[in-house]
Amino acid sequence: MGKNKFDWTSSLNLEKEYWAWNKHRICSQQWLNHVKGRTKWFTDWHSNYGCIKDDSRILQIGSGAEGEINFIKVGHRTALDPLADFYKNHFADIIDTQVEFIKGRGEELPFPDCSFDLVIIFNALDHTESPARVMSGVSRVIKKAVFYI
Question: What is the structure's pLDDT at 6?
């Protein structure tokens, strides 16, 4: 018996259902405060290593609608998610308009080598078809080996 093939379309549809069903919780002030607090903890930590400065380039892979990238207020911030268009259309009230949202997959990072100072992957690696390809891409696009996973 062969290995089951990953069903990407079904996976994305289930993700959309999750986000739509939980929008009230995700957009609640209580949840957003939780994400802000988590973001403050790791931005303080990474700032000590020079990864988060005014001119930093920061990437979050699998950001979701309320990803940490929305709460970092310095640097050029990019969010890569296969549902980026869905989030922009359905969660515009909580997405920071200064963040560049790009539709894409972690397995196929559309960025040049050494283009980011910090890469964030939070609760997303387990949603990929190939975590090894994602990590290989991260090692290619990050300037030095400092990332948040």
Answer: 66
